[in-house]
Amino acid sequence: MSLTAAGATRQRAASESAPPSEKALSTSDEKSFDRQGDIETATVDADSEEAVLSNERDIASHVISVDDDPTLSPWTFRSFFLGLGLSAFGGVLAEIYYFKPQTVGVSLMFLAVISYVLGVFMETVIPRRGLFRYLNPGPFNKKENAFVVIMASASANSALGTEVLAVQR
Fold first, then answer.
1. Where is the composition biased (Basic and acidic residues) (predicted)?
2. Residue 39 lies in a domain
3. Residue 140 lies inside a defined structural domain of this protein
4. Side-chain-facing half-sphere of 135: CA atoms under 13 Å
């Protein structure tokens, strides 16, 4: 993992400002640790492959891809078709089981997995040439999957209006 010039400057400043006991333990090729309260942070030199994640922002940006391809569009036939279909599925299940003694909800993870599987299936089944080429613009992408999951999870939560109508009855 490479550091920017600001990170390298911070690394030198942290190793120079360390107390003599800590400075004697670390060399210029190894990680230097700086103890601040209960949080232990570490700086990494440019040659190292390891990274110590020190806060929530580092963890989120390390786990989740922050790259964006502006050429990919979430507004495709596949995403609307799957979004509406899974929205109807989740909404109907939520309303049916809303009045049962044991409520059953549709999991967000289930919706994400099934939307991805169905999206890849539609990518392979819908023709890419001929009359229907506009229905299949390319590979099923993460923007389409996120769009479908947002639509389906919004409808899978039971509407509050249902509870109001049930109380009036």
1. 28-38
2. no
3. yes
4. 14
Q: Is 103 within a domain? A: yes
Under 8 Å between Cβ of 31 and 52: yes
Q: What is the DSSP letter of 159?
A: P
**For the chain, where are the E strands, in sequence order?**
32-36, 39-43
Length of the chain: 169
Cβ atoms of residues 111 and 149 within 8 Å: yes
| Residues β-bridged to residue 32 | 43
Cβ distance 133 to 66 under 8 Å? no
- Number of domain units in the chain: 1
* Structural domain of 94: 77-167
CB 30 within 8 A of CB 44: no
CA 10 to chain centre: 30
Of 144, 92, 108, 107, the residue nearest 123 (C-alpha): 144
User: What are the two backbone dihedrals, phi and then psi, of residue 42, each rounded to the nearest 5 degrees?
Assistant: -135, 145
DSSP 109-135: HHHHHHHHHHHHHHHHHS-SSGGGGGG
pLDDT in tens, 101-134: 887 778 899 999 999 999 999 999 999 998 888 8
| This model's pTM is above 0.85 | no
Q: Is residue 160 one of the residues assigned to a domain?
A: yes
Distance between CA atoms of residues 55 and 41, nearest Å: 9
